[in-house]
Amino acid sequence: MKNHTIIGMAGHIDHGKTAIIRALTGIETDRLKEEQERKITIDIGFAYWKKNVTIIDVPGHEKFIRNMVAGVNAVDLFLLVIAADDGIMPQTLEHLDILKFFNIKDGVIALNKTDLVDHEWLSMVKVEISELIEAYGLNNIPIIPVSAVKSEGIEQLNKAIADKISALSYKPVQQPFRLNVDRSFSAHGFGTVVTGAVLSDKIIVEQRVTILPDNKTVKVRGIEVHQTQTNEAVQGQRAAINLAGINAEEICRGKVLTAPGSLESCRELLAVIRTSKYLKLSPKKFGQVRIHLGTSELTGNINWFEEDKRWQADQEYHVHIKLSEQGVAVPGDPVLIRNISPVHTLAGGKILLTNPPGIKNKDNLKAWFSKLSSDVVADKILCLMEMRGLKTASLSDLQKNFFLDEDLLSNEIDNLVERKLVIMNPVNNEQVLFLGKNLEQAMALIRDKILSKKEAGGEGYSLNELKQSFVPKFMDEHYLTLALKDCVGKGILFEKDQNYYLDDPAKNEKEINNLNKIANKYLDCRFTAPALEELAAELAMNPADIKRITGKLAQDGKLISIGGKYYLHHQVFTELIQFLRDYFVQYKEIDISRLKEYTGSTRKYLIPLLEYLDRQRYTDRTGDLRKKGISLES
After folding, report:
1. Is 351:269 a contact under the CB 8 Å cutoff?
2. 357-503 and 509-634 have identical folds
3. Which percentage of the chain shows pLDDT scores above 90?
4. DSSP assignment string, 469-521
5. Is the terminal CB of the chain with fewer CB neighbours within 10 Å at N or C?
6. CA–CA distance, 429 with 201 (Å, rounded to integer)
7. Sheet-wide strand order for 589-591
8. Could you read off the pLDDT of 22-78 as tens digits, one per residue?
9. What is the CATH number of domain 509-634?
């Protein structure tokens, strides 16, 4: 059983909500002079019933629905009042919609003003009410006939409410302290006092709390629960909090008290909503609507990811809300959406994520919304990190996104690290989280970037060049740093002096030395270069390496492969071609002895050289003589 229960009134104007509270508690909740004069409830009022029960009286008039919403944002049970003479009225339906959207599924119905109708009429109204609550999916909701003005049926109503309270179960929320402010005033001798329900954890005298969205931190001077001063107020209790260092005008309904550093305000939200059964008008995509979050009423623009251009009644939609000013919400909070003008309820649902990252890949939206709707904390964390792409998240980022208890969040992260789904790495004295598959994607992007440069004839990239290419457009600097570290660790890349290569620079240096040594050897030997196996023996190198290096030199155009195991340096070959051009100006033919005289080479080398010249049409063979070939013309 809960140690404190909050009951929210609901019902059409003039159906007797305030009179019911007066009959139950003896307390007059219409505290404003205008309310007492007009005999209607304009703002929310409060009454204490029994030891640990608060009843919140809310307005029934459609003009004051925003105040009704502020009143029912943290209730455990509803007390829906329907006048027997009027029966079900428009605000009855709208209030039922709001209760449904706020996930308030249990309560009692007080069928008031029974003294004004006969038995037959009363029976008919009871049947209509039973059909209505069944249509809303509400079960085991007792309908208690009463007359508040004559105090008839109040004892039965009292018992029905007590039975509901005793059946309530208490489930602590593993979140830091939070309270939505629904009233603020200045008390003589005390200063600023705010009231609201403690939604999670507890608040203690002398504790410091942050006021959002103002992000101002103040000290708690005193606490009152059920008109009794106390040192603390815990989850589920309504409390009056005396704050130091702030004027009552600075903190109003809609503000939120939180544990410092645990939450941040937001301008954008993702939510899943269901439209009203009685939807008459629909906003346009990106149209402006009223947004109720906690005790605040804001405006904002709304978009939805379904194809419908307009909303249909009683349908689910996945929405993106952009608020016109800073708001405060936590995933799991209810959200109510109402039309700007004429004012009426359009839809309501549940916040899934605040301050979402930009959504570029809409193909994943369905899966993302499903994971964010999950009750499994790990699924939500993985989903957010997937949505962030190649942008890391710190523990404080995740706490503010999901407003989780620090120990709960740490345990969830440790579990994900153990399952190798998330990598945790210290950066600037803070633990930063990387999604495993996103890190692999970052590594692939970097490798492909360096590979493209290599294929274009270049080598590696410096760290600064990689930062300019990837940060912040494609990834943040933390992802780049860890991806480079992993690439080097796994031998995918090699690093030297903050430059990154696909090949080991040390091996590259050795390779370059070998390339230069062999190229110079061929230049020095001119027409007397040894065959490959002889060259390998002479240089004390592996024949396979000699073959690979000469092949690369030939590919680069530094050597000319004249056939089989023989090569000629490009510079020497150019000189030979110029000699032949000059020779054929004076002579029509050349024999092997003249070439041997020019080259100083042996027949073993000259034969493959002459055959190469013939193949390339530098010379045309006639018997043992060569004539000028067509290639010498160019």
Report:
1. yes
2. yes
3. 51
4. HHTTTTS-HHHHHHHHHHHHHTTSSEEETTEEESS-HHHHHHHHHHHHHHHHH
5. C
6. 28
7. 589-591, 625-628, 619-622
8. 888 876 544 433 333 333 333 455 667 777 888 887 654 454 456 666 656 678 899
9. 1.10.10.10
